[in-house]
Inverse folding.
């Protein structure tokens, strides 16, 4: 490699996770380069931007819940600082969420979610079908009940990404608009990357934050390659009428015949409907079947959507990890850190990821709140140690 640029930190990937890492690191006085052909592009261009720590709670993900809530709590101050730094409003909206049930199975599912939320000390309120419709008059008459979660808000991920691009540039981060060709490892440590335009970029620390692509960057040694896979989501955008008051005033969601569907109304009049969840590798085709299922399920919840203009259909790739939680911090390769695997929670986890990565880049220490999310939980050494710890005492004799 013949380096033409050297920085303290090279961030590979300029989605919201890479950008927030770069912004926070630059604010702390580090020189930063971001390598991405289209900073601010990627999954944020597709995501609905729900900040749904409570309504997207799943069994077995209590540890992740803690991180999700920590990030949700940071959002107001994070947004205020981002507006100040960039001059762009990322469309944070404290609208709350209503999760509804359409039939007896959905109702039982929602009751279980409510019980889990209560056991976890979360704020949610059970409503009858009538109470749901009083809150959201466009809901179908068949809605059988729902959960009102006033703390699950939304942000516009496209505007968030644009604000982060400006904040990065103003903080002095350099955006190198090219694809990363391969990681460079020298003397047993990550030393930079070669860009697709042939530029060599050397750095003291390299953060791999390339979303679903993080698992296939050339040059990353097999033992530290993140176990991240693409999980396709198709998303629709419609336009709500401006007259007659709000079409929907909060996010409305449901599980319909086992599939998640959500409707996220923006102040701008955009209504985002998502999302499929498909394990199809790198395919980002928008399919008739995907659009049909989303419209069918959304129509069951809110029949009036059929009157709205359909303005956009798009598919993106979530970076799925084996335990649905992100990989944050140092790897077993000196100089290489990860900020990837955020799966369904990339937008929600943006503030906390920026803080965690900036802390580790400047101190070398992963902060307490991020320790469960160390990438080392997936490396062979950790698994071996854990197995030894789990063996009955007599096997050590
Ligand atoms: N968090 C919403 C989704 O991944 O579809």
């Amino acid at each position: 490699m013949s380096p033409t640029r050297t920085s303290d930190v090279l961030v590979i990937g300029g989605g919201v996770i890479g950008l927030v890492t770069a912004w926070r690191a630059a604010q702390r006085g580090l020189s930063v380069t971001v390598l991405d052909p289209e900073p601010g592009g990627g999954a944020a261009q597709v995501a609905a931007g729900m900040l749904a720590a409570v309504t997207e709670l799943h069994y077995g993900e209590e540890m992740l819940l803690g991180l999700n809530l920590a990030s949700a709590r940071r959002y107001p101050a994070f947004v205020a600082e981002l507006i100040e730094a960039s001059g762009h409003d990322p469309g944070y909206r404290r609208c709350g969420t209503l999760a509804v049930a359409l039939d007896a199975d959905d109702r039982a599912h929602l009751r279980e979610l409510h019980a889990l939320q209560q056991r976890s000390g979360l704020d949610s309120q059970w409503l009858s079908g009538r109470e749901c419709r009083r809150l959201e008059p466009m809901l179908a008459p068949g809605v059988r009940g729902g959960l009102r979660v006033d703390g699950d808000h939304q942000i516009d991920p496209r505007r968030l990404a644009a604000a982060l691009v400006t904040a990065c540039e103003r903080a002095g981060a350099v955006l190198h608009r090219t694809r990363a060709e391969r990681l460079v490892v020298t003397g047993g440590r990550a030393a930079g990357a070669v860009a697709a335009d042939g530029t060599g970029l050397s750095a003291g620390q390299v953060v791999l934050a390339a979303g679903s692509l993080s698992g296939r960057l050339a040059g990353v040694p097999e033992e530290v390659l993140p176990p991240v896979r693409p999980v396709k989501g198709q998303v629709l955008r419609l336009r709500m009428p401006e007259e007659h008051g709000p079409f929907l005033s909060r996010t409305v969601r449901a599980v319909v015949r086992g599939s998640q569907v959500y409707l996220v109304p923006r102040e701008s009049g955009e209504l985002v409907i998502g999302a499929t969840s498909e394990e199809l590798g790198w395919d980002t085709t928008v399919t008739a079947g995907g659009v049909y299922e989303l419209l069918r399920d959304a129509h069951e919840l809110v029949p009036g959507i059929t009157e709205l203009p359909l303005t956009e259909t798009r598919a993106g790739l979530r970076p799925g990890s084996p335990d649905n939680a992100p990989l944050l911090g140092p790897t077993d390769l000196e100089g290489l850190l990860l900020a990837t695997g955020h799966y369904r929670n990339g937008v929600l986890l943006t503030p906390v990821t920026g803080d965690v990565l900036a802390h580790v880049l400047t101190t070398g220490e992963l902060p307490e709140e991020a320790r469960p999310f160390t990438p080392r939980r997936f490396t062979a050494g950790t698994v071996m140690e854990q197995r030894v710890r789990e063996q009955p005492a007599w096997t050590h004799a």
Notes: The CA atoms of residues 357 and 396 lie 38 Å apart. Residues 50, 56, 233, 274-275, 318, 344 surround glycine (CB under 6 Å). The helical segments are 16-27, 62-86, 104-119, 129-135, 157-170, 288-301, 350-363, 380-390.
